[in-house]
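Morning run. Coffee first, then this:
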Amino acid sequence: MLASGFNREAVRRGSDRVKPILEKFIQKLNLYAQSGKRVNLTRGSMCLFADGLMSYAFQKPYGALDAEDFESELLVPVVDFASMMQWPVYFPRMMGYAFKATEILPDWMCRDQVNVLQSQEDLNSVFDTTLHPNVEKGQFTPPLNEMAADAFSFINAGTDTSSNALSIGIFELLDGPPHMIQRLKRELLESIPDENTMVEWAVLEKLPYLV
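And here it is:
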């Protein structure tokens, strides 16, 4: 039932909640560029998508972009955990207990947000159908812990995969042949003449080279 929250129309409706997050990210990048300070773009991208996904799904960002140098207390451990992925092979029992302990994370992170959404009539979020099902169509509201687990799963997965894609894409543009970034700049300048104006999703998805 969550699929209805990710179709094209739903994404367009939810884009207004994501725009302020993107504007904040761009402003921070501009400040770092003006100061000449180098920052970790991958972690910055993770902060962007974590806040964007939370705003889209729960209408409440994590606040990850507020972290100094994009070192979010929530996201840094997620990145560092990747280096521990070989541990279960050598210490299966110890890591089994650790994984059991982390099963409480979805409830801890998402239960309150789901409760808030459940109390609202006009949600306009990915949980519209789940929290206000049409019984005649066979829809139903799952238990709260299942909804919290679903929310945690797609936020965690969407943050990591999307941030990696954005970081790699930017790196390839900067490291690739000059004509690539020049062509992209030209297309963006023609479509977005005012750099201070955030264009609609419908405009961006029609840009042939960007898409």
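The chain has a mean pLDDT of 79. Good start to the day.
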